[in-house]
Write a structure and sequence with these properties.
about 70% helix, single chain, about 525 residues, 14 helices, mainly alpha, three-stranded mixed β-sheet
Length: about 525
């Protein structure tokens, strides 16, 4: 009984506590709900007031913007109206001008029509007069032919001959005048520059030739060189490509080959074999191969030394041996490497005097004969061969043209080409620079005199100064003073076209008048 009472009291207490909590929560909810409702009403009121303010401001701004747009539109419309008025005024002016031009063209067309009619009338009149003139000319020609006894063709031929003779006389006088004026300035200056260049470069007159004779310690060495049944000499000739001539010359063997480098290799190999003493086919091949390698190194060393002496830089490495080969090539007894260095120096001096680039000029002169290092192996003029070599190894077109044009194989296109040709001629033609055989020397003199004697009016010609000058005596009755200058030019061009010669040849035409009287 007591337990049930306790349970009832406890349950009642729980219910009372639940009711008290629910009532408290309800009261708080009601109070918070009222506060939220009041806040919402206040927010709504504030939002409405703010929206009204924004709407009023927007309306005011829209009114102001509309006013500004309207003002701008009115201003733009006013500007367009003014521009349209100006354009209309311009159009009106142009229309007025066009009307005036049309009226002027109409007047001009009318005037041209009148002139055209007048011109047609004039042409008709001229045609009639032309017929009358032709008839008069025909009558006059017939009358002149009757009086002179010459036909029109004969008279024209004679007149043409007189005009040609007069033109020749005038041309001869002009040539002589130009020569005199040119010689007063250019020749004196050119001689001065060339003389200065040659004097400033000191070199031996004739360079020594490449070696072709090998000395022996004794004549018994000839038999060892020949070998049993000639096997040693055959092996040596096959390995070197030269001919070995063993004759009665004491203590000497002659090596004969067109290629000077190959001959030098053979001479060096033979000297090494003689020093070694072991001469047999196997040893010969070994020594010749070693001599060939040594020659390749020697060619490079000679080329490098020549470049250093001439002041030539930035030359392609594969081009240096070609320079070295020139040391074993000669032209009329003149060593080509020495000649190239001399031409290089002369080119540099002349270029400095003329205000050109001396380094480029020296390079042109130094490489001008490089084609001769291989001209016995390659067909063609050595100038064109040298040009191909220079172009292959990256030389500039100025140098290539100077190399190709120094013997007129191509047309010169720069002052350096003319300068190279002049320096080459100066080096080749100075006294003692070259040697030539007696036979070729006499032939050249005879050809010079033969060419001069073929011209009309020439009585006698004499080649003097070792073929550097030719003096021509002419008939004073057939050749005048003016024609003498023209004759000299024609002979010089004929010599240039038909003869090959180093340097230059001076042509002197001599015309004299002799008067003779006898005192009794």
């Amino acid at each position: 009984m007591g337990g049930w009472m306790a349970f009832a009291y406890g349950g009642g207490a729980v219910v009372l506590a639940f009711l008290a909590g629910w009532l408290g929560h309800r009261l708080r909810y009601t109070r918070l709900h009222g506060l939220a409702r009041d806040l919402r009403a206040q927010f709504l009121a504030d939002a409405r007031r703010e929206a009204d303010d924004i709407l009023k401001g927007a309306r005011l701004e829209a009114k102001e913007t509309a006013l500004q747009v309207r003002q701008q539109s009115e201003a733009e419309a006013e500007r367009l109206r003014a521009d349209l008025a100006r354009r209309q005024e311009v159009v009106d002016q142009r229309e007025t001008g066009l009307i005036r031009k049309v009226e002027f063209l109409d007047q001009k067309e009318s005037r041209l029509d009148r002139l055209d009619q007048e011109l047609k009338d004039r042409q008709t009149e001229i045609a009639g007069k032309s017929l009358e003139i032709n008839a008069l000319q025909t009558k006059q020609r017939e009358r002149l032919e009757e009086i002179s006894g010459l036909s029109a063709e004969e008279a024209l031929r004679r007149l043409t001959e007189e005009l040609v003779d007069s033109a020749r006389q005038h041309a001869a006088r002009e040539v002589k005048k130009i020569q005199i004026e040119t010689e007063r300035t250019a020749k004196r200056q050119a001689q001065k520059i060339l003389a200065l260049a040659v004097q400033r470069y000191a070199a031996q007159h004739v360079a020594e030739e490449s070696v072709s004779v090998v000395g022996l310690p004794g004549d018994e060495m000839k038999g060892r060189i020949i070998g049993r049944e000639g096997r040693n000499i055959r092996a040596f000739e096959e390995a070197t490509g030269v001919d070995v001539i063993i004759d009665d010359t004491p203590e000497a063997v002659i090596l004969s080959a067109f290629d000077p480098v190959r001959r030098e290799v053979a001479a060096q190999a033979l000297q090494n074999l003689i020093k070694d003493g072991r001469i047999h086919p196997g040893r010969i091949e070994e020594v010749v191969e070693r001599a060939r390698l040594e020659m390749s190194e020697r060619l490079r060393e000679i080329g490098e030394q020549a470049c250093l002496e001439a002041g030539i830089t930035n030359l392609h490495d594969d081009m240096v041996p070609y320079i070295g080969r020139l040391n074993y090539r000669t032209s009329y007894g003149q060593n080509l490497l020495s000649h190239s260095k001399e031409v290089s120096a002369i080119c540099g001096i002349i270029a400095s005097e003329l205000g050109l680039d001396p380094r480029l000029a020296r390079r042109c002169g130094f490489l001008h004969d490089i084609g001769k290092s291989v001209d016995h192996e390659v067909d063609g003029p050595h100038g064109l061969i040298g040009g191909r070599i220079c172009r292959k190894f990256g030389e500039c077109e100025t140098v290539v043209n100077a190399v190709e044009a120094h013997h007129a194989d191509v047309e010169p296109d720069s002052p350096y080409a003319f300068l190279t040709a002049a320096a080459d001629a100066a080096s080749a033609s100075r006294p003692g620079a070259r040697r030539e055989s007696l036979e070729s020397y006499i032939t050249r003199l005879e050809n010079l005199e033969k060419i001069a004697n073929n011209f009309p009016g020439v009585q006698k010609s004499y080649a003097i100064q070792a073929g550097r000058e030719i003096r021509i005596l002419v008939d004073n009755a057939k050749v005048s003073d003016d024609e003498a200058a023209l004759l000299a030019e024609e002979i010089s061009r004929r010599i240039e076209a038909e003869l090959d010669y180093p340097g230059q040849i001076k042509i002197m035409v001599i015309r004299e008048t002799r008067a003779t009287a006898v005192a009794r």
